[in-house]
Amino acid sequence: MIQSMTGYGKSVLQLPTKKVTIEIKSLNSKNLDLNVRIPSYYKEKELAVRKKLASALLRGKVDFSIFVEMTADETSTTVNPGVVKEYMQQLRNMIEADTSTDIELLKMAVKMPDALKTEREELDETEWSTIAKGIELAIKDIVQYRIDEAASLEIDFKQRIVNIKAFLEEVNDLDGDRIDNVKTRLQKAIDELKVETDENRFEQELIYYLEKLDINEEKVRLANHLDYFLETLASPESNGKKLGFIVQEMGREINTTGSKANFAPMQKAVIQMKNELEQIKEQILNVL
Fold this sequence. Notes:
By secondary structure, the protein is an alpha+beta fold.
């Protein structure tokens, strides 16, 4: 089952003193590009969070965030009264008494360095245990989003493979007419030269020329690649890189067939195959 690299997961926790929102967003990328934003008092858990995300999401440009909103009346930030009073006294000494009130001085003083002090909040392991469960829920959410997003991609891939197979069958049906057309063109060119030719030598040269234009191997390999693509698509693991390699091999066989075609109706079918393959190439970049 394939997964898309595009996804979104979220979980919201209501703790005794705070509301915690966990968000994970991901876009396609060749490798894992992980950006983690968490409050400073959870920093010691960042490495464990990164490992968990890397293990679950594997690839993609991933943004992980923990947002905390305090809901309790208490706050860890308090006024440093001694510092504020000293600032106010210094401001009084600098400013004439009739040009400023103590309220205005207070507004200025609390903006000064160290006027407010914040007690460092220690990590509560019980609280983190609850947050860790929320992270698991958000990861589960984004994985499901990726699976749902990939479902439409899988339908599209299968349809385009069916289309390529149909055009390959058309190429196979046209192959006999193509050979006859090549023989006719060569014979006509020789006749226009009005020179006598050795029929045996002509047949030998014709066989050699037709061998150069033979596309049987390309048709067989392309058919095998198409089946292998569907087989890989149906496997339990999502493997976008492997699917990408198969698509490259399919492109080689289609291009070689086109270069050997020398027959307009066949080249039209080849162009149609290329068009279908290009659509697969664009979408395969978003598969995990």
